[in-house]
Write the structure tokens for this entry.
Amino acid sequence: MSNDPLVIFTPSGKRGHFPVGTPVLTAARQLGVDLDSVCGGRGICSKCQITPSYGEFPKHGVTVAKDALSDWNSVEQRYDDKRGLKTGRRLGCQAQVQGDIVIDVPETSQVHKQVVRKRVEARDITLNPSTKLFYVEVEQPDMHEPSGDLERLVRALRTEWDLPELFADLDLLKTLQPILRKGEWKVTCAVHLEDRRIMQIWPGFYEGSIFGLAVDLGSTTIAGHLCDLATGEVVASSGIMNPQIRFGEDLMSRVSYSMMNPGGADEMTAAVRDGMNELFAQIAEEAGITQDLIMDAVFVCNPVMHHLFLGIDPFELGQAPFALATSEALNLRAAELGLALHPAARVYLLPCIAGHVGADAAAVALSEAPGKSEDLVLVVDVGTNAEILLGNREKVLACSSPTGPAFEGAQISSGQRAAPGAIERVEIDPMTKEPRFRVIGSDIWSDEDGFADAIADTGVTGICGSGIIEMVAEMRLAGLLDGPGLIGSSEQTGTTRCFLDGRTYSYMVWDDPERPITVTNRDIREIQMAKAALYSGARLLMDKFGVDSVDRVVLAGAFGAHISPKHAMVLGMIPDAPLDMVTSAGNAAGTGARIALLNTKARREIEQTVHNIHKIETAIEPRFQEHFVNASNIPNAVEPFPILNTVVSLPDVTFNTGGGGGDTAGGRRRRRRG
Amino acid sequence: MSNDPLVIFTPSGKRGHFPVGTPVLTAARQLGVDLDSVCGGRGICSKCQITPSYGEFPKHGVTVAKDALSDWNSVEQRYDDKRGLKTGRRLGCQAQVQGDIVIDVPETSQVHKQVVRKRVEARDITLNPSTKLFYVEVEQPDMHEPSGDLERLVRALRTEWDLPELFADLDLLKTLQPILRKGEWKVTCAVHLEDRRIMQIWPGFYEGSIFGLAVDLGSTTIAGHLCDLATGEVVASSGIMNPQIRFGEDLMSRVSYSMMNPGGADEMTAAVRDGMNELFAQIAEEAGITQDLIMDAVFVCNPVMHHLFLGIDPFELGQAPFALATSEALNLRAAELGLALHPAARVYLLPCIAGHVGADAAAVALSEAPGKSEDLVLVVDVGTNAEILLGNREKVLACSSPTGPAFEGAQISSGQRAAPGAIERVEIDPMTKEPRFRVIGSDIWSDEDGFADAIADTGVTGICGSGIIEMVAEMRLAGLLDGPGLIGSSEQTGTTRCFLDGRTYSYMVWDDPERPITVTNRDIREIQMAKAALYSGARLLMDKFGVDSVDRVVLAGAFGAHISPKHAMVLGMIPDAPLDMVTSAGNAAGTGARIALLNTKARREIEQTVHNIHKIETAIEPRFQEHFVNASNIPNAVEPFPILNTVVSLPDVTFNTGGGGGDTAGGRRRRRRG
């Protein structure tokens, strides 16, 4: 047994004997303990802070004497004077081992620290960014052993940091010589580790941060999150409307635009890239940094957005067999895409799963990890196109289903985007058939005192996506709407709120003479189609998996966060499941982008995962149409929904008097597809 | 022993048994025989032509029957009708083995064919270009197994051609889908094998060629050679003046320009790149191709040109310790350098050996391979800056020496560039001291009949570099010039051609009243300085190598081709050696560039070689100055030149009468350096 002092690190539990005088950082490195350092032990960066513990440690079998570490030294004193060192902390590169010692590495001193996600059930992100800072001292040129300045810099990075052979772009080469001399051969380098590229160098020790962007490029909005690559912290977030909207609201209309207009695809590519740069400028300003400090960016998007962003005509995505130009993950340079970030910035696009199931679905798979779930989980990303994943540790299936924009309030007579004044919560009294509701921006229900005051500024302006889901479900629960989706007449329902409105009936929600809010039977049809598309996709995956039920349902997408599980289930939008097993994952695609940005290992993971996901193309599955027709009923013409039936009781009403009011969702869908 | 027929390939001698019906191409591939094919055996490309041999082959122990191969088939018939197949040839992919057979693979059907160099002593180039053509049939998209078009293309290239995972630029992705469909899923790909990148695809079988450029970027001229990458053949060559000349004739004046003028380096970068593009356009036009078929380019140049071409300020190269920004070989994209080639074209720059010994010297090392020489060889690339290599299998040393422009006819009173009318050959009668000479453009000596007619068009316009070397050497041999470099008076020399010309004497070569051609003592001084610089560099390397003589001398550079070995040795420009051991390598740097272009293995070889070359910096070697002073004498103040003395006898004359005519080269050099 060694007579050298025993050094024990917590929380890793790694331990070893080291000669007296060994710096704690050196001991940590030799044991492979995750202790950060940018300056390589020169007492400059203060990243290697540790907390020594003294006294008896029966668990570790050691007693730590008061003098187990060397005394506080002048470097630590200087740092403490300048910046303040937390009580009990030492600089790992300065404190030297003198006797047996137990050393705790605080979370903030770990390179691969955990970045905590806000949702309780979500996994934390292990920090492992593409680009890190390294401080080095470079050998000066020697005429007897001539070598390039770059080669000596690369050698220093290899010797001091054990980095592989690195390369540099021409832009860096142009600045290299003056910076090395300005820093007197001491420089800080930002190194892209995967690409083995020196991104930038600063003379001396660079005290600032470097950043990365996680971007969720949606058909409607583009959202970006700026992260500090050393801490994982989101330092700014912002979003803009996708400027491509002027070429078409939904994906297929944009594909059509490019088919009908020569150069149309290029126009849309330019528009989205311009929008992106506008967003980046906005985010950088919010964070108070310059855009050239953004060295890495990760993008998630659906296949059409993916192709248009890359400058590829999405023509093939508009028709079977929906062939992607490329489906694998892409590593590009920001400059190739015309993005105004650091001149050498790298860009990563997650892989696409199939022609209809894009990198956004891959990002959801990364965030929600159905393939790591013990129980069978259905993940539904609700949008104009729903991406659906079903799986557990055994296997994962995926498909997409064209829900259309109804869930976003479009094509609904009183529909609107989620904004103050929009109805978001609804209850209908099953006895009186009277509605009560709440609007965005107020916590007061419409039948409570103070409601008029609360909405004085906004008024009641319409119904947002989650509101329309609750509205339709409540109408069904109150017996105003039958299973096939017909609104009853005032006679059939016993309320004058149901009124003849053309050939069918409508329900009066808010009887404001200036701005009445009603639900028409056509609105019901739109919702039926949207929810039937979603359900039949999920049901198809269940068929393929060989199950009739799922253990839990995760609703992803910003919209998913606002959906009431009970109402969604009454509508038959999602399969029958215990209500507390239906949760929201928020913007899971955006989270997936952030995970891929902060942890490059997660990129390899999702690339592998995507290969293992089994894709189902709804368009060529004969049972899809059958499921769709069944799912047009509310909740469903054939599925029993036994768990739902223990929670609610659906009135057994039928309003079709046989008079040919057969404008069913299924019938309309067939016509539209024809 | 197998009962299957025996197939023997020549010239490789590879042999194996194959079942009846095996196509010859298949047999060749399985045996690793170098038999070309672009279409993968589909009878389209005709690259796999072979010549079967019939009859008795005691050497191989086989008898080949007339029916040892299957009959001529319709594919071969169609090819023969269309293009004509040489008598005796078969298509290797069509002809099937029926019995024991001997098959010759002609040179033109080998992938790694030898590209023959013109010089007898030069090694051939084994063809192994960066970029090759491959024809493939791609699987069509399948909705049940969705994958990107690119991924299926890459898979086809892997399956059919055993290529590794390949990547594509965005530009290619943009064109991929329509081209695959236009070619009905049959395409030809140009693949950069080192960069694992699909450069371009063509629908169907592409019948054309792809090209590469070898560029020798000199301070004065830029020369380019366009090569067919499949045959190695030079299809066009051209040269232009380096447009940087307007910023300074020599390297140091360009470095000064960038130091004195803010943005000066960028101006020079733009100038050389513009010039390059002009050259490329010129070469492409000459070859009758479009520039976008040029997919690879290799550049050799000295360090200052190297930095200016890359856009790096050469400031550091103008002062000790002459630090290069980067010395390793560079793999770049042509687009980064603003070069108008194929949009995805790659560029390779050979490594630099040291701050004064550039990629051009590396190219000379690649072409002349001193490190592979059994005997000790001195390679001298004569230019305004001479690069000198000394070595054998044991080791190689390198240095550069600033010879200045005198060898190019500059700074010589009657000097001129090599052009019609310039004196290139000289003899002086040692008895009469009368000169006779020949000018460029005529084979008639000046004392022969018909000379006047022969030069009627051009006149005698001056003395070119090789002419001035012969002139000075002949003056020394004829006793007109003493060892220290003084021209004698007419009294001392006995000829009135020597005349007082200011403080010193000059020699009248061509007494044309309108355009007399003389050699002044100042001209002698310039040549003394230039040759002393060259010799002392070589001598320094010999010191370092521990030798006093070399086995052979190779003169590289366009100018080197015209130098008379005897005269160079009389001048003491090169070390003493048997005259037949002094040879010219022509433009060895350009040849090195061509080798690196056509054989990527040679790139790895020179990168390794350069690491092993030991660099000597003349500026910090104390003995260099001593060698220089000694070498200012003609041929040398201390070196005996014993072999030269068996060929010529140098008159022992001294013209310094002690009158203080001490304007020696050494003295002037010291003043200039001070």
